[in-house]
Structure formats: structure tokens, C-alpha cells
User: Which sequence fits this backbone?
């Protein structure tokens, strides 16, 4: 048995994509429709900066095919705070804005932290305890994107495993890369694209990520990233995989994602 692998990009509204990804004269109002026809997931960054209306989430769900999902970046007011464990009201506000209108097209909720935020086991554990398993009856999956080296700590991995929360695997020269499996999914953000590569990543690198995604889907722990808890590798359990080409040479991201999907077998 293996989990399902979804591959995508960050957002769908980016002016350079109108010359490199979307067909000529494609209406901007239908860019999501087109992107969803070529990809299998999109990470939404706009939800980090502001709330959306329930009808907006419903419209997104209607615009994409069955099996497509949106990963939503949680509000910055939940994570950009001195004491994380005091963010309960902000978390509730974010989750109750209407995200359930996405239904089965709701993917993971991404909780991203500032690069200056250091690991504090008590406070971070208190934050994880605030993340609910469901919202209005809809199951939620949570992933945490930490950006300070202090999180490369077995205690952090243990907290995430206890809470059933997944750790983001980040390919970036600027942020720590933590390869430990924790929650029920594997979530990768590939941020090391280069402008001079047609796909952002060289073709052999794309093929490598295809192999990594397949390993994650089988429940394996590949050597793509160093482990924070190398002495505590979990038993292999199939996991759904979400892989997003984010930032770096952003203009190349859709092509990298499409090439990855093609090599995975469509």
C-alpha cells in the first residue's frame, strides 16, 4: 500500500505565469481552472495575510476537479506571536472563517513560523495542543513549517509525533531541513529552484524528488534530509504526500510541478 502523491505550486495568480504557463490571452478569472487542470494541489498563501469569505472557498472548490486539494497557510496572527500557546482565539478565528466550504478539497493546514522564532518545548507543545482534529465535522491535517535551527531537536520531533502533526520538509539554502516523519502525511516545500534551469530544478533533481515522494508514500524515511531524531525512526506506514515547488525561481514552478507529475505517471 502507498499513499497518494499530490504536486503543486504556491497560488495561481502570478503575472509572469501569463507569459510562461497560461495560454495566450487566457482570462485571468479562469486561471485557477487552468492551473488545477495541470496540477494536483495548490498551496494558498493569501490566507496567511487575510481572511476569506465562505463563498470564496466554495468558489475555489467548484473550480477544481475531483481529487484536487488546497493547502491553506494559516493566518500570521496565529504564529507570529511571542507566546504561541496564547493564540487560541486567533486559531479559532482562522479555522471558522469558512474553510469547511472546501469539503474534501481541503488539504493540510500549514502553520508557518518566523525565522526568528526559537524552539521552546513547553510553549510549542501548548500551541500544538490548540490544533483541533476537526472543524465543523471536517477532518483537519496540520503541518508546521519551522525556520530556526533550534528546532533540529529530538524533543521537537517527539512533540509533533505526540500531537499527530507533520513537520514540513524544506529544500532551501536559508532554512533548516528536517527529514523526520511525524504526522500522517509528508509535506515538502522545494525552494531551491534556479532561473537558468527550464524546470527550475535540473531534470535529474526532479527525478530524485520523484523517488523521494514515492518513498514517503510507502512510509519510508529517505535520506533526502538529515534527521533531528536519527535514533528514533518510526515504523514504515504509508503516508499521503504533498510536494510544492515554492519561490526560488518562481516563474519555473509550474513546469517543475508538471514534470514531476508526468514522471510519477500522471
Assistant:
Amino acid at each position: 500500500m502507498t499513499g497518494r502523491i499530490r504536486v503543486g505550486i504556491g497560488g495561481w495568480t502570478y503575472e509572469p505565469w501569463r507569459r510562461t504557463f497560461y495560454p495566450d490571452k487566457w482570462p485571468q478569472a479562469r486561471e485557477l481552472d487552468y492551473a488545477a487542470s495541470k496540477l494536483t494541489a495548490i498551496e494558498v498563501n493569501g490566507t496567511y495575510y487575510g481572511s476569506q469569505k465562505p463563498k470564496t472557498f466554495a468558489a475555489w472548490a467548484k473550480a477544481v476537479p475531483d481529487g484536487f486539494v488546497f493547502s491553506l497557510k494559516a493566518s500570521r496572527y496565529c504564529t507570529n506571536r511571542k507566546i504561541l500557546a496564547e493564540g487560541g482565539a486567533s486559531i479559532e478565528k482562522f479555522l471558522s472563517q469558512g474553510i469547511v466550504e472546501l469539503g474534501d478539497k481541503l488539504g493540510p493546514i500549514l502553520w508557518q513560523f518566523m525565522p526568528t522564532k526559537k524552539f521552546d518545548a513547553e510553549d510549542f507543545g501548548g500551541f500544538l495542543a490548540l490544533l483541533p482534529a476537526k472543524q465543523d465535522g471536517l477532518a483537519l491535517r496540520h503541518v508546521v513549517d519551522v525556520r530556526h535551527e533550534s528546532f533540529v531537536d529530538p524533543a521537537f520531533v517527539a512533540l509533533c509525533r505526540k500531537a499527530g502533526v507533520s513537520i514540513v520538509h524544506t529544500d532551501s539554502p536559508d532554512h533548516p531541513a528536517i527529514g523526520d516523519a511525524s504526522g500522517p502525511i509528508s509535506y515538502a516545500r522545494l525552494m531551491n529552484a534556479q532561473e537558468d534551469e527550464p524546470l527550475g530544478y535540473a531534470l535529474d533533481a526532479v527525478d530524485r524528488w520523484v523517488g523521494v515522494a514515492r518513498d514517503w508514500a510507502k512510509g519510508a524515511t529517505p535520506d533526502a534530509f538529515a534527521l533531528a531524531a536519527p535514533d528514533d525512526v518510526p515504523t514504515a506506514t504509508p503516508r499521503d504526500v504533498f510536494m510544492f515547488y515554492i519561490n526560488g525561481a518562481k516563474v519555473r514552478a509550474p513546469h517543475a510541478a508538471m514534470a514531476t507529475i508526468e514522471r510519477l505517471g500522471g
